[in-house]
Amino acid sequence: xxxxxxxxxxxxxxxxxxxxxxxxxxxxxxxxxxxxxxxxxxxxxxxxxxxxxxxxxxxxxxxxxxxxxxxxxxxxxxxxxxxxxxxxxxxxxxxxxxxxxxxxxxxxxxxxxxxxxxxxxxxxxxxxxxxxxxxxxxxxxxxxxxxxxxxxxxxxxxxxxxxxxxxxxxxxxxxxxxxxxxxxxxxxxxxxxxxxxxxxxxxxxxxxxxxxxxxxxxxxxxxxxxxxxxxxxxxxxxxxxxxxxxxxxxxxxxxxxxxxxxxxxxxxxxxxxxxxxxxxxxxxxxxxxxxxxxx
Length: 295
Hints:
Layout: H1 12-17, H2 23-48, H3 55-73, H4 84-104, H5 107-114, H6 117-127, H7 130-135, H8 138-153, H9 157-163, H10 165-187, H11 198-220, H12 232-284, H13 286-294
């Protein structure tokens, strides 16, 4: 009888110090750093043109880039092929933490404000293209992200990614792209062809809840480890994290959208108050209103 695998203990020292120095890890770090420098340069160019740029947007975008570094380059990545719960956290960061933070940074808006007319023309042409209109529909992002998650965790692809490092690295890119496709239309403020109202975006988030829950429960109830190198306890704990953290990210996004909805309603109420005040003023002073009309 083959002894059951035992997942190693996660230590704070390793999480903090075991940074990944493989060529692909360093290449991804270089790309992230370059993107960060490009974003900051864009912010400075916008400010030199006399326009303001939100510090919260900058902080959000930098936070999204930092999340990618944590997932791919930090000691967390040193556990992804030996501790399933750490692997789950890694992929959730790439799909549900980094993408919404990057989207809240409004990088496309920054590009439009900081670039030349020719670049703006190209960007706007891409934004209004047929593929962009299709991909910006929230249900497309939900379908793609669901297929990616289910296809990875519930098929032999997962075990194959542990054996083949290049495939493993490719899954990181796929998770980040699928997460961006899902989160950008929901929490992002960039101009996109299909800008849905706050209520519709909250409904899209609600649709994702049962899919996330079923996947987490399915992994949590597995009767054997998801891969031979993991223990069953580790697999079931990872399933619980997949379920719990997935719902937590959704609730967080709902909170962001609710805050946006409250601001919209507050502005609408203020406009209505001003309109009613003007009507009451006109009713009390019909002569002044008529004089204003003659003038």
